Each structure stands twice: as structure tokens, then as C-alpha cells.
């Protein structure tokens, strides 16, 4: 593949925010070859060119600020049995926990004093937490800290539940679609779950008025390049305000224990492509990216990411929220994680922003 062809495709992607299927194939396969094994992202190379365009697209909307979100993993109890996930119901080895409302609120208070103005409450699909309880927790957080945004990430619910959480003050909702392709989705999930319902949830959430996050694991078992292209097309259709992308990493006590993990290279290429397709999206450099490579999150920022979610969960439960093996930041105090994250952001040439960091719609001028 000549360098010229790839650069033309990158320019086209930036301009038209889309490519034909065959062009996506050429681009992604060409970039995979081009990616230096030592990851020196030289501006002269195609990946360097792609990443600098991605950073340019990000900077045009948000500047080179990286938003911090305080992540509170408040329950690892889950009724589902996703084949990839370490906290699946069928994993009898997982040590289960759930935080009380008071514990959640004290994590938020601690985060607030560290400067956070966005809190992400994430958990398994734990039926112990009724809609009323979730609404009560969210409205207490908002009453105490009206200047903060609250994000929920608690899985698939009925539309009425999503409406209730929104009314209680929830601003954002994260629900990765995992795979837009029915067959591939079915290979990752038990038969009770369907991509049709997942998509319905995402469109309901958008319709209600949430800032919505979709996303996938890169390199999940059986994923093909065509699946990834289908995911890109689905995200163009949904127009989420956030996209969560990280490599798949095997967990030893799941049916996918022997599957190969996704690569840092593929995850970075995908991050940059998404930044060019959806320039105004909020795009985290995920914990999984930092787990697959010690500098994964820094590389993520170089590829156009602009969000990092340090862990604010209490120390005694961190090791239990293990979606995959080797997860980083399980031994650190919240304050340590924050300091470490800030250093990493600065080392990647970006600036820290502890504000709410809401989605900004790209103006017509900026899109030119
Ligand atoms: N490897 C990487 N990411 C995972 N997730 C769940 N299990 C794994 C794994 N083994 C991701 C899913 C989920 C998000 C919360 O974490 O995409 O949506
Ligand atoms: Fe948690 Fe580095 S971000 S220790």
C-alpha cells in the first residue's frame, strides 16, 4: 500500500466523515502494517499523520483539554452472563460486593474535594437497586453538589426506568453496544440478550435527552474487520455524545479465558478513526487501554481521546471489580490515581480539566 493512498483516505475520512467499506478495509489494514512495533509515532508515517489529524479534530472542538470523571464501581453483582466479563453471574469465584448509599455518597464527597465535577456510577445489573433507590442516590448527589454531572452505567432497563433516572437529575448514560452485528453480538452474549434490545435502549436514552455513550471492545473474540466497520456505521447512525473503546482482555474465570486479547495498535487506530468520524465526541482513554500497555492511555490521548476516568471506588472493593485480568489502579488510593492521571495527561502534551466537561456540538464553522 503506497503512503499516498493511505493519506488520501485519511484526508477523505476527515473531510467526509465516512468511507466506503472497501476504503475502510484498505485504510485499517494499511495502518496495521504501518504501525511501528516500537510505537514511535512519527509524524511522517501514516499512523502519525492519522493521529495528528485526530488530535487536530479534537483540539478544534475541545482544545487539548482532557476531562476527568470520577468512577465509582458501586456493585459487582450482575444478573447477566456476558461471556467476556469477569463479573458475569456464572463466575462463582468473583467475590461479590455492593456499596451502601452512604458509601457511594462518601466516595462522591471525597471526589468532590479532590476537584471532580463528574461522577460515573457504574455497576453490574444488580436487581437489588430498585429504580427508586437509584433515583434517591442520584437526587441526593445532585442536591448536595448541584454543579456536578452524574453519569449512570447500569445496563439495560425499561424506558420508564431511564425516564425516572433522568428526572432525578442523571445527565449521562454509558451503555456500550458491544457489537452492532447480530451474529457477532450473539457470540459474545447469552441467548437471553439481543442487540435489538440493546439498540432500543440506546435510542430511548438519546430520545429522553441523555448524553449517551456507546462503544465496543476492540479485538473481542470472533470480531472481524467487517464487524468493526458495521460498528462504525451504527455509531454514525446513533450519533452518541460519548464512545467507549478499549481492547478486549481475557478474564481467567470466564468462557473466553483462552481467547487472545485485543491489541493496543488496533485500539489506537479505532480511537483516531472515531475521532475523525465524530469529531465532537467525548472519547475516553480507557482503563483497559492502560492495562494492555503501561503507556496505553497516553497513546490514547495522542490518538485523539479527551477523557480519563480515574477510579474513586473504596480501596477494599477495587480488586473485586475485575472485568478482566490485570486491571490497573486496583491498589491505589483515589488521590494517588488522580495525581498519576494528571501527570500522564501532561506528559502527553494535554491539559487537565476537572470541570463537568459536557458534550459540545460542533458548530458549522468548526466543521469546515
Ligand atoms: N475486556 C475488556 N473490556 C471488558 N468489558 C467487559 N469485560 C471486558 C473484558 N474482558 C467492557 C465492556 C463493558 C464495559 C463496562 O467493560 O465493553 O461494556
Ligand atoms: Fe490510577 Fe495511575 S491512574 S494509579
Task: Describe the protein in words.
- The chain is α/β, with parallel strands linked by helices and 368 residues long.
- The chain has one domain (63-357): TIM Barrel, CATH 3.20.20.70.
- The chain is 45% helix and 12% strand.
- The chain has 15 helices and nine strands.
- It has helices spanning 3-16, 21-34, 46-62, 101-114, 131-144, 159-167, 182-188, 195-208, 225-238, 264-277, 287-292, 296-302, 315-318, 334-347, 364-367; strands at residues 65-68, 70-75, 118-123, 149-153, 172-174, 211-218, 242-247, 307-308, 351-353.
- A six-stranded parallel β-sheet has the order 2-3-4-5-6-7. Strands 8-1-9 form a three-stranded parallel β-sheet, with helices on one face.
- β4, α6 and β5 (172-174) form a beta-alpha-beta unit.
- α1 (3-16) packs parallel to α3 (46-62), α5 runs parallel beside α6 and α6 (159-167) packs parallel to α8 (195-208).
- The longest helix has 17 residues, at 46-62.
- The protein starts with a helix and ends with a helix.
- 47% of the residues are buried.
- It binds 5'-deoxyadenosine and FE2/S2 (inorganic) cluster (FES).
- The site of FE2/S2 (inorganic) cluster (FES) has 7 residues, from α14.
Number of domains: 1
Principal-axis shape:
globular
Specify the CATH architecture: Alpha-Beta Barrel
CATH superfamily: Aldolase class I
Q: How would you state the average pLDDT, rounded?
A: 95
The portion of residues forming beta strands comes to 5-15%
User: What structural class should be given to the helix and strand makeup?
Assistant: alpha/beta
Amino acid at each position: 500500500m503506497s503512503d499516498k493512498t493511505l493519506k488520501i483516505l485519511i484526508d477523505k475520512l476527515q473531510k467526509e466523515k465516512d468511507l466506503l467499506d472497501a476504503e475502510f478495509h484498505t485504510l485499517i489494514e494499511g495502518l496495521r502494517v504501518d504501525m511501528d512495533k516500537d510505537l514511535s509515532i512519527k509524524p511522517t508515517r501514516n499512523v502519525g499523520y492519522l493521529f495528528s489529524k485526530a488530535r487536530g479534530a479534537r483540539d478544534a472542538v475541545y482544545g487539548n483539554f482532557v476531562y476527568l470523571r470520577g468512577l465509582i464501581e458501586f456493585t459487582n453483582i450482575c444478573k447477566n452472563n456476558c461471556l467476556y466479563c469477569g463479573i458475569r453471574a456464572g463466575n462463582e469465584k468473583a467475590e461479590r460486593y455492593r456499596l451502601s448509599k452512604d458509601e457511594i455518597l462518601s466516595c462522591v464527597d471525597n471526589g468532590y474535594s479532590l476537584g471532580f465535577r463528574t461522577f460515573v456510577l457504574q455497576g453490574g445489573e444488580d436487581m437489588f437497586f430498585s429504580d427508586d433507590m437509584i433515583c434517591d442516590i442520584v437526587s441526593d448527589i445532585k442536591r448536595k453538589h448541584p454543579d456536578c454531572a452524574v453519569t449512570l452505567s447500569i445496563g439495560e432497563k425499561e424506558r420508564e426506568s431511564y425516564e425516572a433516572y433522568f428526572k432525578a437529575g442523571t445527565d449521562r448514560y454509558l451503555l456500550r453496544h458491544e457489537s452492532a452485528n447480530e451474529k457477532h453480538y450473539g457470540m459474545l452474549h447469552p441467548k437471553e440478550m439481543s442487540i435489538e434490545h440493546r439498540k432500543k435502549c440506546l435510542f430511548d436514552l438519546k430520545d429522553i435527552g441523555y448524553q449517551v455513550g456507546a462503544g465496543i471492545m476492540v479485538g473481542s473474540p470472533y470480531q472481524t474487520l467487517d464487524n468493526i466497520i458495521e460498528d462504525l456505521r451504527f455509531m454514525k447512525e446513533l450519533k452518541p455524545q460519548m464512545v467507549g473503546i478499549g481492547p478486549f482482555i481475557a478474564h481467567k474465570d470466564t468462557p473466553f479465558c483462552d481467547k487472545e486479547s485485543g491489541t493496543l495498535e488496533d485500539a489506537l487506530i479505532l480511537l483516531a478513526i472515531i475521532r475523525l468520524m465524530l469529531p465532537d465526541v467525548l472519547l475516553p482513554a480507557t482503563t483497559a487501554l492502560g492495562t494492555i500497555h503501561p503507556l496505553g492511555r497516553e497513546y490514547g490521548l495522542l490518538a485523539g481521546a479527551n477523557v480519563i476516568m480515574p477510579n474513586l471506588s473504596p480501596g477494599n472493593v477495587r480488586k473485586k471489580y475485575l472485568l478482566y485480568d490485570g486491571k490497573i489502579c486496583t491498589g491505589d488510593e483515589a488521590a494517588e490515581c488522580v495525581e498519576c492521571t494528571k501527570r500522564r495527561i501532561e506528559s502527553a502534551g494535554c491539559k487537565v480539566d476537572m470541570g463537568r466537561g459536557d458534550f459540545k456540538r460542533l458548530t458549522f464553522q468548526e466543521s469546515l
